[in-house]
Structure formats: C-alpha cells, structure tokens
Amino acid sequence: MKTIENIPNKMKSVVCHGPKDYRLETIPVPIINEDEVLVKIEACGICAGDVKSYQGAAMFWGGGVLPPWNDAPVTPGYEFIGIVVAVGDIARKKYGLELGDRAVAEQIVPCGECRFCRSGDYWMCEKQNIYGHQKNIADGGMAEYMRYGSRSVIHKVSKTLPAAEASMIEPLSCSVHTVARANIRFEDTVVVAGMGPIGLCKLQLAKLKNPKLLIAIDMKPKRLELARKLGADVVINAAETDAAEEVKKLTDDYGCDVYIHNSGHPSGVIQGLKMIRKHGTFVEFSVFSGETSVDWSIIGDRKELTILGSHISGREGYPVAIDFLNRGIVKVDEIVTHTYPLESFEEAFALAQKGEESIKVVLVP
To answer: How many other β-carbons are positioned within 10 Å of the β-carbon of residue 172?
Structure first.
C-alpha cells in the first residue's frame, strides 16, 4: 500500500441521521484495504436528490410502494471528486492510480453478483448501494476524506479542470445516459424540461445530436437565459405561458417528438404528456418528492407513446462525461454558481433548495 504522510485520524463530515437531521461531525478517517482507495475530497456537489433526501422524500426514506433506501447514519454526497492520498496495491494495479492522482468513483457500488451485474448492466444492480446513502458500504463525499471501496468503478481524471467543475462529472454522466436513451434524430423537435444542472447538461448533449428544434422549459428566468446561451433554440417560461400550447404552435399542432423530463415535479409529467405528439418518446429522469397522478389512457389509447426511464449513468456515462469536460464540449463553468465550506452546509442546502439565485451549489472541504 502507498500512502502520503500525515493523514489525520479524524475528519470533518456532514452526517445524515434522518430527514432534516444532518449534522457536521468529527468522525474517523476511513481505513482502506489493499483493494481500496482513499481520496482527499476536493469538492462535492449538492444534487436535487440530496435536497429531497434531506426533506424526507419517500424515494429515500420509504412510503407508498417504496421501501426505505437510506441507511443512516451516513455521510451524504455522490457528486464528488478527490485526490488519491492512499491506495492499496491491488487497487493501484487495477485502476492505474498513483498518489496525487485525481480520481472519481461512479456513484453506484455494484454487488457484482446479481443478474444485472453479471450481465454488465451494473448500474441497475439489485442492491442499489449508491454513495451517500448507505452507511459503511457507501459513505459519500460531503467530508474531508472518502473511501472508494473494492467494488467501486473508478476513473482517473485530469487535473486541468477546476475542482468544482470536476464535481459535475456525476450529473453530466447521468445526462449522457438519458440523452442516449432518447434516441434523438435529426428531424426531431426535442423538449428538455427542467433547467437545473442536469437539465442544462442534457440540453447541451441534445444539441450535439442536431435536432431540428431544441426547446428548454423552466420557471426561472436566470436558468432560461443560460439555456439559451448553451444552445436552446427556444426557451419557454412555464410560469408565464402555457408551455404545451407554445410547443404545439411551433410544431404545426402535432407536439414535440421527444420530451426529456428532469424537474421532479408532477406538473412536468402532465405537461409533457400534453405536449408530446402521437408515437412520441417520453424520457423520465426525475427524483420525485411526491406521487404523480395522470390518466394513463393518453399513453396507450390516445398517443401510443414510448415511455422510457433513465437511471443514473449507464455504462457509457462516466467515460463520456470525463472526455467531454476535458475537451470543453460541454460547458459547466456557468452552471456551478456557488461554493461553500463544509461548515456552512446548512446554508448551502437551503440555497440549493430555493434555487432562485443558484444553479449548482458545491461544498468544498
């Protein structure tokens, strides 16, 4: 094993104990084995999922048809980037890592044993351990140090990117998988609904597919301004106009060919079903804080839609995201709007939840 000198025994960490019970604590620095990696965290983004977990969404704490997923107490955070400060010999050979390298682990910690892992679809692992949600197995990146476990999928990352921008690898990787699922064609009218950090990444990726018309929808003017700058042909403020009617006006009353939903709000689902054409493709990527009710007749009997889900990053997400950021193909410098130290995590979460002034909020230990 290789390790730098003077790694402390204790570190500061945000610790999730339950809904609305997140605390800054001093806890032990993780100890690694020969098949693991220890990184000093440079930055960790706050995702909308982190905010909804904090708020107590059933997706994370159970409710309705959903069993509990969070296993607390746990260090949250899955949008992390770090510098290798200790690496076991097995991990060093497996991933080609040396001390001082920058590295990211994919957010999922696959079991390697279920039918999905064995078939190569490891991002759908039946156990679904994801960093920031399960104690010991998958403690996350809102801390000074973090352990990349033996089953992690680890990638080396260039140091040329600013740390806060490098923390956008995870959301961009999810965007890569979603846009690949959408199967966008040249003649398509594509709507990306929800211009948060992931929506703005998906917008740029959709633009690379050269659709006939690319439309961005949100309710926040600041985000729509950036969407236009990043490639949207048309931006629609759903707080000021009937977005479905506007899209139909732009498409000879047929509706959009592809609708990519990211907002996590039930109204975004209903809006999409209204504006999508017959035989259209609806791709859902959101983490919802509540149930969505809709007349399913529109999916089958009225429009015969293709409904696709998109879960995290797929197999291609991280390598493509790292490459696109390195080459400047996708821009995230204006998406990252605020950085905070760990000590101010409560203020950072509040700003991310409100979303009026911020787009992406990042914690920097």
So the answer is: 28
pLDDT of residue 247: 98
Nearest to 332 by CA among 288, 362, 353, 364: 362
For domain 172-309, give its CATH number from 3.40.630.30, 3.30.1450.10, 3.30.230.30, 3.40.50.720: 3.40.50.720
Distance CA 193, CA 247 (A): 12
User: What is the domain partition of the chain in residue ranges?
Assistant: 2-168+335-363, 172-309
DSSP for residue 317: H
Q: Residue 217 belongs to what H/E stretch?
A: strand 213-218
Q: Would the pLDDT of 23 be above 90? A: yes
CB 258 within 8 A of CB 281: yes
Instruction: Tell whether the torsion through CA atoms of 140, 106, 262 and 311 is positive or negative.
Output: negative
Say if strands 2-3 and 10-18 run parallel, antiparallel, or are unpaired.
Answer: unpaired
d(CA 122, CA 212): 34
CATH of the structural domain 2-168+335-363, one choice from 3.40.50.150, 3.30.1460.10, 3.90.180.10, 3.60.110.10: 3.90.180.10
Q: Is 153 helix (H, G, I), strand (E, B) or coil?
A: coil
8-state DSSP, 292 = -
Q: Is the pLDDT of residue 209 over 90?
A: yes
pLDDT (tens digit, 9 = 90+) per residue, 98-121?
Answer: 999 999 999 999 999 999 999 999
